[in-house]
Amino acid sequence: MGEEKGLGDLSLREVTGKAGIVPAAFYRHFKSMEELGLHLVAECSIRIQMIVGDARVKGAYRSALQLTIGFFFDYVTNNRSLFRFIARERTGGNRKIREGIREAMHLIAVELAKDMRMPKSISKVDTLFASELIVSICFQMASDYLDLEEDAHLEMRKLKVKTIKQVRLVFIGTIRGKNINIVSCCRSIFPMDRKGNNDI
């Protein structure tokens, strides 16, 4: 995929030329550019789910988080063009690709939730919600990571540490938040007028 172009801006000739194949060979595998995009998203999702599983096998619980994020950024490093494509298409013009990316992130979150050893008082719904937030953070950080120069090793390390800290805060917030009255909290943040309407 092009470094700066979205899927809708790429021609079949550009893609096949980069891959070193003729257009006829492309159509033996994919019906359209859209189908190619969905295939790339699905492959990325499967690989990241495998990364989560590998961290589960290789690391103890306390180190699993750091392992997972480390493996994730290794995968981003080795697949820069793929993640640039995903970063663009998350807000791109193709609705099916956007939906595919959302579904891929959800499947990754489901896999990650299996490793989130929350207290029994935390529901599975809240655990999945926290997992989805973690995946969203990681994908956003991947976009920031790709903006760094490839030899900016110190900045890369700082960004990885920042990602781990943000993910830990999600864990802490999920555990501590179970005792917070959400309605009262929202009312304190978004006060209502005399008619009971929020300011937002």
List the helices and strands and how they pair.
Elements: H1 12-19, H2 23-27, H3 33-58, H4 61-78, H5 80-89, H6 95-113, H7 124-146, H8 153-177, H9 182-189
Helix pairs in contact: 3-4, 3-6, 4-7, 5-7, 6-7, 7-8
Can you tell me about this structure?
With 200 residues, the chain is mainly alpha-helical. Helices cover 71% and strands 0% of the residues. Helix 7 (124-146) runs antiparallel to helix 8 (153-177). It is globular, with a radius of gyration of 20 Å. The model has no long low-confidence stretch (mean pLDDT 81).
How do you describe this structure in short?
The mean pLDDT is 81. This protein has helices spanning 12-19, 23-27, 33-58, 61-78, 80-89, 95-113, 124-146, 153-177, 182-189.
Keywords for this entry:
71% helix, 200 residues, mainly alpha, globular, 0% strand
β-strand percent reads under 5%
Measured as a percent range, the helix fraction is over 70%
Structural class estimated from helices and strands? mainly alpha
Largest sheet, in brief, is: none
The separation of the N and C termini measures: 41 Å
Bulk shape? globular
Average per-residue pLDDT, rounded, comes to 81
Low-confidence stretches: none
Q: How many β-strand runs?
A: 0
Determine the number of helices (DSSP H or I, runs of at least 4 residues).
9
Encode the helix/strand succession as letters: HHHHHHHHH
* Cα-atom radius of gyration: 20 Å
